[in-house]
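Hello support,

Our group uses your service weekly, and this is the first time we've seen a run hang past the timeout. The protein is non-specific serine/threonine protein kinase. I'm not sure whether the cause is the sequence or the server load. Input pasted verbatim:
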Amino acid sequence: MGNCFESCSERNVNEDENVGSSVNSKPSSRGDSDTGRSSNLSYPWSLKPLITRKSEASSALPAPTKERDIMPSHHLKSFTLDELKNATGNFCPESLIGEGGFGFVHKGCVNGGPGIELAVAVKKLKTEGFQGHKEWLREVNYLGRLHHPNLVKLIGYSLEDENRLLVYEYMPNGSLENHLFERRSNVLSWSLRMKVAIGAARGLCFLHEAKDQVIYRDFKAANILLDSGFNAKLSDFGLAKEGPTDDRSHVTTEVIGTQGYAAPEYLATGHLTTKCDVYSFGVVLLEILCGRRAIDKTRAREEENLVEWAKPYLRDKRKVFRIMDTKLVGQYPQKAAFMMSFLALQCIGDVKVRPSMPEVLSLLEKVPTPRHRKSRSKSFGANSSSMSSKRFLRHN
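Update from on-call engineer: The timeout came from a worker crash unrelated to the input. Re-ran successfully.
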């Protein structure tokens, strides 16, 4: 099995060399991830929805799904349970890299070709799980047909009796959530934060512009996984929903998602549109800027909700520095920081004027990247930021 059982908590060193030109080219508990307490492992599949108007759940799994319920895809391999037991050392404790309401995730190795061992993450549904079946099927059917550099690759699945498993490409740098909020993680540089934001935006754009539009519905830092080069890939499609059809403006559905990331109009009406994903993207932009969780109950009451706390500072370039992540110790370009903050403000704004994801991506790609690795910011009142800000605002 080689080194397939290495802990996913091991991090690659953040290096700006990984950036290059590519920067421009789920009320119930979801564990500790939304309370400010860091768990050892924070993979997205270890989490459950926080917001629900009515339960999708039943106390036991439905009758086992048959292969015919899975959309045909030549991209996916059907694994036997024995194959995945062998790949993970019979799901031994040493291979465990994630755990939650859905089930367990183990690191393993599968045959990737002649003489090739492919590192994978194997998600195993708890047989007594109350909501995992529908999410498992959505995951297979969406990732079986959707392929993009900024979506995590689903390699295959296993379906035997009550056992349901998914096999993904292994992402050695874990999630964006790990890097932003876990104290033991290396600080994510400004350039890498920009790279991750742009990559995640590209993934959302692909979903929104697909022939059969997909609304992600659970965009958050925990669902953005990072490969060895810190390229962002969206994961966990268990809550994804088909977009509106027949000239309808929205999909009406039960409210489900993650507290702090869901758009207010969706919470109020259950009307789901791509603009709901845009709102969630804006929240993640704030997390990237501030180094704070969307909801953090360990903070003072007025600072628990990131959007409410940060919003008064986002429009004024003289105040933005007050919300910036102190772990960056000033090593970020002031122009770029204000442009990012104003874009975040637009994303979390009223749905009637909220930009689309293609518009968001276009603006993100116009944010200038630093010329030097260790350029320190100056006062946000400097006149040098005015021209860039004006150009940025003219796009809105």
